[in-house]
Amino acid sequence: MSNVKFMSGENVPLEMHKVRMVQKVNLLPVEERLKCIEDAGFNTFLLNNRDIFMDMLTDSGVNAMSQEQYAAMMQADDSYAGSETFYRLEAVLKDIFGMEYFLPAHQGRACENIISQSLVKPGQVVVMNYHFTTSKAHITVNGGSVEEIIRDEGFKINSNDPFKGDIDIDKLKESIKRNGKENIAFVRVEAGTNLIGGQPVSMDNLREVSEICRNEGILLVYDGSLLGDNLYFIKIRDPKYRDIEIKRITREIAALTDVFYFSARKLGSARGGGILTSNKELYLKMRELITLYEGFLTYGGMSVREMEALAVGLEETMDFDVISQTPIMVEALCNELIASGVPVVTPPGGLGCHVDAMQFCSHIPQAQYPAGALTAALFIASGVRCMERGTLSEQRNEDGTERFADMELARIAFPRRVFTLSQVKYTADRLTWLYKNRELIGGLEFVDEPKMLRFFFGRLKAIGDWPQRLAEKFREDFGESL
Ligand SMILES: Cc1ncc(COP(=O)(O)O)c(C=O)c1O
User: Fold this and answer.
1) Residue nearest to atom 16 of ligand 1 (CA)
2) What is the CATH number of the domain that holds 350?
3) Which of 285, 403, 417, 473 could form a disulfide with 64 if both were Cys (CB 3.0 to 4.6 A apart)?
4) pLDDT tens digit string along 213-264?
5) Closest atom of ligand 1 to CA, residue 111
């Protein structure tokens, strides 16, 4: 938000844009919402959008685009090879990040596939602040393993630490000593730890990690999918950067890394992805895989229209008014929930509001997926679709036992510039009602469990008749209301 104070002293997340195109949404009666979540196997990924009131599943590929982005889409050059669109995007990337080479890819996980295939050898470890589902899957599929070295503070649900995404420097040094640098494929820093609260990484920490990696000759790979939020937090939480231009901070981040990749479904509010590096040898190695898996080098699986929108979207990411919109809405929802006693991750992060299902549903054992149950219950109570970020989002251990997640979170994501404050208040209201009736929520069990990335399309059923009882209580309390 720009520097606008309200006379009342209230901290209102003021929108710095106006809405000029809208999409009608439906709010079904609670009985129909119950039927929809049952039909979806209690997996919010399997709901149909027509049945959803507010889609807060993700911020990926569902952000509102600016009029400038739409206008840019009209000038796309769709040549298979040598497209002008590619050169326009490449020039913007070079200007913003200052890195030498750009490889386009169809989305973030495609970058992870290329990077992991190029860098991970069987038996090697990738050391990182925290994993993301697809990044871990690509590392393990290539025979590597993941070691997480986030500071202990990162695992605390409630904290005053402004940069809970930071790597623990002692753990990093210890890991290099124990594993031997030749067994570390690369160090990965994820801006805005997606799975544990969207928490940012500080510049001081990145600088220190980069220095260690350079001294040891270990590659530093930066996942910048959530860079926009991270830039906002650097600006407002690190006094040293308050008056530094966003573009300068971005350049500084890029200069500290060897490989920078991103999902353009998030960063730049379009649909696509990209890898940047100034390392020629690495670029040449990854380049071959782009043509094998993604497409020719001047589009890499992206639509040229999206590439044009991305070029503009990246430039807009350098605007504080643009990148502040999601974090201030997240903070507004978190504050409303905190005021009602609902347990959420603090400080509020980027990307979404993270509700702590371990406290919310403390009566549900982790083996019965409390965060999954909470996402299903929230849909029944409100028509709001959010995402489980807990044990369901983990892969089982090799021996088939559950790998319990470090946190059980229901992530209420904010597609950028999509929802209004009254919709945020509605979400807080229904979540508060749910919290008051939390004893009604029960566990879930799998009826169909895929081996890989099971949370995407696995199907579950409720243990007992709690969903029906929850819907009945809703009707009792809200009468005729939707
Ligand atoms: C931090 C992070 N890395 C990588 C990805 C993967 O990107 P995509 O969904 O475009 O494949 C995501 C997506 O949510 C993400 O949040």
Assistant:
1) 194
2) 3.90.1150.10
3) 417
4) 999 999 999 999 999 999 999 999 999 999 999 999 999 999 999 999 999 9
5) 11
